[in-house]
Amino acid sequence: MNSRWLAAVAAVAVVALVSARASDDAVPAAAQSQAVAPVQSSPAPAATAAPAAGTARLTGRVPVLPRKSLPAIKDYGPPPAFKVDAPDPPVSAVWVGSGAPAVDPASATPARIEQRGYQFRPTLTVVRSGTPVVFPNEDQLYHSVFSKSQAKRFDLGRFRKGEEPPAVVMDTPGLVQLFCEVHEHMRANLVVVDTPWFAVTDAEGRFSIDGIAPGKHAVSIWLSPRLTVTREVDLAAGQSLEVDWTDAAAEPRK
Ligand SMILES: [Cu+2]
Prior knowledge:
This protein has 254 residues and is mainly β. It has one helix at residues 3-11; strands at residues 16-18, 56-61, 93-96, 111-112, 114-116, 119-121, 124-128, 131-134, 143-149, 152-159, 168-170, 174-180, 187-193, 198-200, 206-212, 215-224, 227-235, 240-244. The model is unreliable at 1-46 (pLDDT under 50).
């Protein structure tokens, strides 16, 4: 625990916690920040090199909550039998700021959420608003991906491996909960954010976000469809701030 870490903790203000709303609800609004040019974010472990000129880096650790047990798999019908693999381990997400305009879907790199081993992979995805998302089926049987979330309602219908359904453009910030109409145990979350600075954590809750514009930012910590905690940082150009927010899930909830 070094002095920079202590300073960071002192500077952190618990702004709000929220999102104990309906599971379909939008991501809680964070404080507005200035819109800036898109910058790549990365979930990779903290780099040791200094942040790019004029920008800051935020690294650290947040909680990862255990996933609720999913309903028992019922009889999915006649053979051929298939094996349901274990889902990926739960992870959390972190993003910095809000208010950035959506990207142009035509030039954005599509995100990819596969169905493989009769599970969605990855189980949690974060994209910037405007990003197209594709849902390729890598299994031998049909899947049927849909969402009834307010941020994006769609229903791709049944499709097989190789029958790539059209990409879905995630135009509205918020939580998009994904289901498969054929396999009711299949669940995934897609968080659409209006900021270029975001990361999905590893299974231990570690994250690293680069290229952040200096200044005060609200930081959103997504822990589950019903719990997003917000904190605040004040970053200087060239700063690499490391935080320990592993207590975030224990804060009182509104
Ligand atoms: Cu399915």
